[in-house]
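User: I'm writing a tutorial on reading structure tokens. Could you give me a worked example: one chain, its sequence, then its tokens, then a sentence or two explaining what the tokens reveal?
Assistant: Sure. Here is the example chain.
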Amino acid sequence: MSDELKNGCTPSDCASCGLDCGSNSSTESHNTITLTLDDNTEIECAILTVFPVDAQEYIALLPLDENGQNQDGEVYLYKFSRTEKGDPILANIESDDEYAKAAEAFDIVLDNARKAEAAGAPLE
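And here are its predicted structure tokens:
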């Protein structure tokens, strides 16, 4: 799997950039990444956030259709790290236990964002 960042932002900026990457507006106003799957299919995804679980970071991606929208709410979770040069590296989550921990942590991130939005607080 390869990745290509657009709009000059890095994935670790996404949690605090202030863009609503989960909205249904154009991908050009969002931080996006293009995933190339094993069968060479490319999927454009909005970067929702990078978040830690224990000593590992994970990234949450929202797959977008050709119109830059996500109709089903599906989110992809991957391990996230960087090369020595700072380039992002995404890796599959191999175990069900690790995936469950990452999914639970992402649910907490979402819950905190909803609470902050309801309170009118800025998202961090």
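What the tokens reveal: The helical segments are 96-118. The first helix runs from residue 96 to 118.
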